[in-house]
Give the backbone structure.
Amino acid sequence: MSTNRQYRLAHRPVGAAQETDWDLVTEPVPDPGDGQFVVQLQQLSLDPAMRGWMNAGKSYIPPVEIGQVMRAYGTGAVVASRHPDFPVGELVTGEFGVQEYALSDGRGVRRIDRELPVPTSAYLGLLGLTGLTAYFGLLDVGRFQSGQTVVVSGAAGAVGSTVGQIAKLHGGRVIGIAGGTEKCRYLVNELGFDAAIDYKSENVRQALRAHAPGGVDVFFDNVGGDILDDGLLRLAQGATVVICGAVSQYNSTAGAQGPNNYLALLIARARMEGFVVTDYEDRYAEAIDALAQWLADGRLHNVEDIVHDSILAFPRTLTRLFTGENTGKLILELERMA
Amino acid sequence: MSTNRQYRLAHRPVGAAQETDWDLVTEPVPDPGDGQFVVQLQQLSLDPAMRGWMNAGKSYIPPVEIGQVMRAYGTGAVVASRHPDFPVGELVTGEFGVQEYALSDGRGVRRIDRELPVPTSAYLGLLGLTGLTAYFGLLDVGRFQSGQTVVVSGAAGAVGSTVGQIAKLHGGRVIGIAGGTEKCRYLVNELGFDAAIDYKSENVRQALRAHAPGGVDVFFDNVGGDILDDGLLRLAQGATVVICGAVSQYNSTAGAQGPNNYLALLIARARMEGFVVTDYEDRYAEAIDALAQWLADGRLHNVEDIVHDSILAFPRTLTRLFTGENTGKLILELERMA
């Protein structure tokens, strides 16, 4: 077998992650022990949460330690196996890390159903944590009801675009906030959002007033910062602010900027709630069934941004998440060259 | 009859309210029309919320307009009446304004039960909005359960001291945050709090770590600012942050300071929720029954800070709420001299 290239965390970044925060390590591909198997990675999921995993200290999951292979979800094929449930040739998805080959004992690994009329990559997006986050965040944490007005920030991102689509197919009125006219046009024309606000060229506060005159019932926030503050001022009575992430804040060296308008929660008798999708693990099956059906029916677009390159492209591809460059689920599809 | 002195709002304050924000107006005491009565005010309730009512713009209730008598709750005696339900001599409580005599048609006015072994002033505190705010904020919004750890900011204030006592008599572990050793000693020695943190001399973040090693289940916030931020870092999984007020922020000219640590809501899967007690109006009777019983049984201390003076003391007495000077429910008891 060939060698295994992997990215290990070398430094905890200050501000945005840099190329120098990583060590590229080359090792022999491991041999599986009893009850183990080796996966050759095909696709890596690149997620905003990765930036948080690089920080020290308490969070919803332990940080990646210095010297550890960077955490990442991926898909791949079993290429060597001493595990009865994962024979060679099986397609799988799991938390395999940023590397070309991963050794696994099967814990947390799901088999990919080749019969489903969905691409493998959907297991990293719509049928993976992205779709699950959107599903439980909107329907469970956000308690969304048909007829309500939903505003999604980071609306062109993987989670945001899914939240908006799920709200639409449940009879919601959906307003997306995204950066750039192209993204906004995409949300309205391709994904069926009722309106989109370009935060780069529009006054978000005024635009929300125009598009949500009756107030916002669910504000699904992936972004934080000023956009969250603008959203707080438009809450309908009894609204919910779902705190899913704060991509505008992850690279901040000054610490996160809190929502100065939080007293709007009092005026609107509203609730701001955080959640972590892995808490819903015992209900994943319900959600995946629903999401797969919507995807198969064409009611849900699988919005992907797939970069075809070698693993060496990982550091620079990751930065696209934080510069507003990508639309939809960012995936690095590994090619075997370079 | 004599004249009626009243304070009307002259200017919307910038920062703290000043003497010059008020017009002292002297009018003849009105005659009651059909279905009306006149109350001679005995006690005025002074509340942190008053600062918010002086601001223009949307809030949970309309602002006091320039030239209007300042809004205030009070108790008093009916001294003239053409209303069958409120004969002369009746003791009543209601939103009568900052004045010596008020004309009323009975809407929102409650009769004071002279049979109950509680002082009249309790109707402005424990049996009024203060007690109701503490009761519904802790038990309903906060979903407090026996055995949980509760942290109350502004703990020596009227609402805060009541929240802590209600949590104690329901089997909670209660930590108060207040300013000064005297207040802290009072909370622990007189009111039975398990611990008190003096934010003026202690590092609140460290003290919370020491007093709530297992995390905080309910953080009842009256204060905002840095203390809210410190509390967010100690939340237990599934915690609730009850946003009752933000007395540290009301006089801020730079706008409120948002909780920069709000992403702790995500890590702790926690919820921050605002409420307004008047939404619970149809459940007031349940709460007042419970509060009156606890008060009569001596299980609840009626913590009052009564200033005996004429109505001319209103402007300077109000400022005590924002300078950390008062403990418990602040009441101006009107004396009939100058």
The two ends of chain A are 17 Å apart (CA to CA). The mean pLDDT of chain A is 93. Chain A has nine helices and 15 strands.
